[in-house]
Design goal:
The complex is a heterodimer of chains A (about 250) and B (about 280). Chain A is α+β, with helices and mostly antiparallel strands. Helices cover about 30% and strands about 20% of the residues of chain A. Chain A folds into 2 domains: about 130 residues, no CATH class; about 120 residues, Beta Polymerase, domain 2. In chain A, helix 5 packs antiparallel against helix 7. Classes of the chains: A alpha+beta (about 250), B alpha+beta (about 280).
């Protein structure tokens, strides 16, 4: 199939990229679009050209960068494979028709986790809140690492970290602090039934709060911050807060 | 040794320190402290109940100061020796300014020394305290600090109290609690605090035996005795038997409490969409 697809993998003004057998071409479009019976309704599909790299790089794994993603496509079937893709340079729109008589490589399939990872990475690029650069600069790499380690303690599916920034639209001078409220929202069932999860959450929360509050120019409002059950965290609070994401701590651009 | 003689000798030591340059004894001035605020480092000679000779380190230069009796920290009033004081006032220049708010933080016992060679100790403490840490360093948590935070997490997991109430229950200030919760802070707990912590840990375990749900807002529930668990837990001397009885009563009440909307939804088969999040190891 590659000979059919290859000619369409070009960016305006650029030469066709070299595609080697180790590369993965991943169809990104929704399945319903790919299998749409009426061809004119969905004439194109989008693909992502992923190149094999040696190992995950800290700055690109975990959706820390909205520009580039390093990920494992399938830890079970391809445990040693690590791929990397650029959010702009490696994305292509190709005619859906050329896929009509082709099947995906049966030896290569993405794990559910990898699919979700890619979906969230794409979504993040367009939905992440634009936190002020001056705010982001107050978290140096070591603070980010400490925060990241704190969040790693969490059972991912049961807890969401949300933050409210009082000066969310303002680029403040170095002397003026940003004010932050932090919420760890725990799934109601886990909150009510699982003391072990709550213990992890509280440990993570303490570490997160201590680290954030220690960042120069960041004042965490300890009074309003807290660990909340999903039942308690209201719709209103979701509107006041953003989901914490390390990609948000990068430049707005 | 009279204060005058002492001050003269200290001036000589100070001159030596100056000659060596601040950076040889203290690497960083004007750094964030453990809570992230700017500070000055103040080293004071404390004689009896007055501070008779003081030096302030600001912007990498040692400044010698005068009597500070008017602003002495009460917690160190009876000490004689050298004391390091962290100034949270965000002031970085000058003796007069720096000392004005020099006692924003209570001095820790380990900052106080009765050693004769206190300048050496001062420098050692300063190096330890002011190494480029704040947020920015991966602070190596001590085993005791980790244990303290873990114990607090267990208590919080069982009781599910907001910080303010937990501080009340532990009978410490809220800022004090935040320090307890910061694993990068080594804190020598006083005997009363240790006992209180151990007691709350016990009671939290007692609650966990009765319910998997956190105590949470039920802490305010009126009990048959006319009081509430919060009132019982915030007493200077907690009657554990009374608290246990209150736990029994509240646990019974919680069982008969109507389900929340999300519980009703879950029971009716409406469940949350699971998130297939990649873990760092998977990505």
């Amino acid at each position: 199939m590659l000979p059919n697809v290859g000619p369409y993998l070009t960016q305006c003004g650029n030469a066709q990229p070299v595609i080697v057998p180790d590369d993965w071409i991943i169809v990104i479009s929704q399945t319903c679009d790919v299998v749409q019976a009426n061809h004119p309704n969905e004439p194109f599909v989008e693909v992502l050209h992923c190149r094999r790299i040696q190992e995950l790089r800290g700055e690109y794994q975990g959706r820390r960068s909205t520009r580039r993603l390093d990920f494992r496509p399938n830890k079970t079937s391809h445990g040693d494979v690590v791929l990397s893709a650029h959010a702009v340079a490696d994305r292509y729109v190709i005619p859906r028709e050329i896929l009509r008589d082709a099947n995906p490589d049966p030896a290569r399939s993405l794990s559910d986790i990898a699919v979700s990872n890619l979906q969230q990475w794409y979504a993040l690029r367009y939905t992440r809140p634009a936190w002020p650069d001056a705010f982001n600069e107050r978290f140096d790499n070591k603070a980010k690492k400490r925060l990241s380690n704190a969040v790693k303690l969490l059972p991912i599916d049961e807890v969401e970290v949300r933050v409210a920034i009082a000066e969310k639209d303002l680029e403040l001078d170095a002397e003026t602090p940003y004010h932050l409220a932090v919420f760890f929202v725990v799934d109601q069932t886990a909150w009510n039934d699982d003391p072990g999860i709550r213990e992890k959450v509280y440990a993570s929360f303490s570490e997160f709060m201590a680290t954030a509050d220690a960042c120069r120019g960041v004042v965490v409002n300890q009074e309003v911050s807290g660990v909340k059950s999903g039942d308690e965290f209201s719709w209103q609070l979701t509107r006041v807060t953003d989901e914490w994401n390390f990609a948000n701590l990068s430049d707005q651009g | 040794m009279s204060d005058q003689t002492y001050a003269r000798q200290e001036r000589a030591k100070l001159a030596t320190l100056r000659a060596r340059g601040m950076n040889s004894s203290i690497d960083l001035i004007d750094q964030s402290d453990f809570t992230g605020r700017m500070f000055n480092l103040t080293a004071c000679r404390i004689q009896s109940t007055s501070l008779t000779d003081a030096c302030v380190a600001a912007n990498g230069v040692l400044h010698q100061g005068g009597p500070l009796a008017a602003t002495q920290p009460s917690t160190a009033a009876a000490s004689v020796g050298t004391i390091l004081i962290i100034d949270g006032s965000n002031v970085t220049s000058g003796l007069g300014v720096g000392l004005g708010a020099a006692f924003a933080y209570a001095p820790r016992p380990e900052w106080v020394s009765n050693e004769t060679s206190h300048w050496t100790i001062w420098a050692q403490h300063a190096q330890k305290l002011l190494r480029p840490s704040d947020t920015t360093e991966n602070v190596e948590a001590s085993a005791s600090a980790k244990l303290r935070v873990e114990r607090l997490a267990r208590i919080q997991a069982a009781l599910g109290l907001p910080a303010l109430l937990l501080a009340d229950v532990l009978r410490i200030s809220r800022p004090g609690l935040y320090k307890w919760l910061d694993v990068s802070k080594d804190i020598a707990l006083q005997e009363t605090s240790r006992e209180r912590l151990a007691q709350m840990e016990r009671l939290a375990a007692h609650w966990s035996e009765r319910s998997r749900a956190p105590l949470g807002s039920a802490i305010h529930e009126p009990l048959g005795s006319g009081t509430s668990i919060l009132q019982l837990l915030t007493q200077p001397a907690v009657d554990e038997a009374a608290v246990d009885r209150a736990f029994d009563e509240i646990a019974m009440k919680l069982k008969s409490k109507p389900d929340t909307l999300s519980q009703k939804l879950a029971e009716a088969g409406f469940t949350r969409r699971r998130t297939q999040m990649a873990t760092p190891d998977d990505e």
